[in-house]
Amino acid sequence: MTTSVKPIIAITVGDVSGIGPEIALKALLDPHTYDCSRPLLVGDANVLSHCIAKFNLPLKLNLINRVSDAAFSHGQVDLIDLANIEMSRFSFGEGDAMTGSAMIDYTKKAVMLALQGEVHAVIGGPHTKSSVEKAGIEFDGYPGLVAKLTGTKEEEAFLMLVSGNLRVVNTTLHVSLKQALELVKKPLVEKAIRAADSAGKALGMSSPSIAVAGLNPHAGEGGLFGEEEQNEITPAIEGVLEDGIQAAGPFPADTLFAEFGKQDIYVAMYHDQAHVPIKMKALKNIAALTIGTPVLFASVGHGSAPDIAGKGIAEPASVIQTIELLSSINVKNQLINS
């Protein structure tokens, strides 16, 4: 892949009290990362220097103020240092207001770089919601945050979990099950399906096949177990079919996900309905793509794992998978627009 095609990807280290810094650094140890992309980190130099020494990683930091200063050389980690961690207060596995606020700052900086056209894509490191809450910042996950930072309506930003040929979109995300039931209405379901279709096309599918899950047991069984399928989900599917989108359903979720992977994209109604099947298939190798915003943004498909933070045993597979995913999307878009 030529340098002109390789996308510049800003990778944030997430909550530094977790495994984010470790897996970001380890991902940059893999030479293939530089074969398919030009990566740089957004984080704190003191924390990353500490990680390099603690985990005995053969890496050196290259502090940069501008993306144009980056070397993009394997073994030399280009870093935009926000210097927002007091090491006297820092400890692995103990997220607090400082680390939560810092995670938000890293994301803001990286998204700003994307909006300014200085980077092609952004990867958000694993976060810890409790740390962000301690900082007094409203946060329900990356899709909502990226929507706010890009001026996108929050109800138009969705999460798509991706692992190889497995792709599932969340209609609702980090809300209670009770709230999710209240939110599953025709307009939102239709937006989720349309976002799934657009994302599929960005991934190179000319007309992605989209299977939509029901909300209730047996997809409502004709109204016996709930009317959301008849009143909300089916009308949403009919609405997108008018525009040529290849959507079908609603299907009972238990049997639909038993055949996971036969359709290009699946649309689930709530968090666990989406996350359980794909995490059973590929827990450590999932990318979480935010769709519906003007920024190409993804995060790793797992949390900050405070229980193993600082032990040097975290695996970078999810970061590498996410880099490869964003690189493939960016290259396809460049070729289409060239």
First and last CA, distance: 16 Å
- Sheet/helix structural class: alpha/beta
Give the C-alpha Rg.
20 Å
Identify the CATH architecture of the largest domain: 3-Layer(aba) Sandwich
- Tell me, rounded to a whole number, the average pLDDT: 93
In CATH's first tier, which class of the largest domain applies?
Alpha Beta
Shape: globular
Going by CATH, the homologous superfamily of the largest domain would be: Isopropylmalate Dehydrogenase
Protein name: 4-hydroxythreonine-4-phosphate dehydrogenase
Cofactor: a divalent metal cation
Family: Belongs to the PdxA family. PdxA2 subfamily.
GO molecular function: metal ion binding; NAD binding; oxidoreductase activity
Write the layout of secondary structure elements.
Blueprint: E1 8-12, H1 20-29, H2 31-36, E2 38-43, H3 45-54, E3 60-63, E4 76-81, H4 97-115, E5 121-124, H5 129-134, H6 142-150, E6 158-163, E7 166-170, H7 177-183, H8 186-202, E8 210-213, H9 228-241, E9 247-251, H10 253-256, E10 265-268, H11 271-282, E11 287-291, E12 297-300, H12 317-337
Parallel strand pairs: 1-2, 1-5, 2-4, 3-4, 5-12, 7-10, 8-9, 8-10
Antiparallel strand pairs: 6-7, 6-11, 11-12
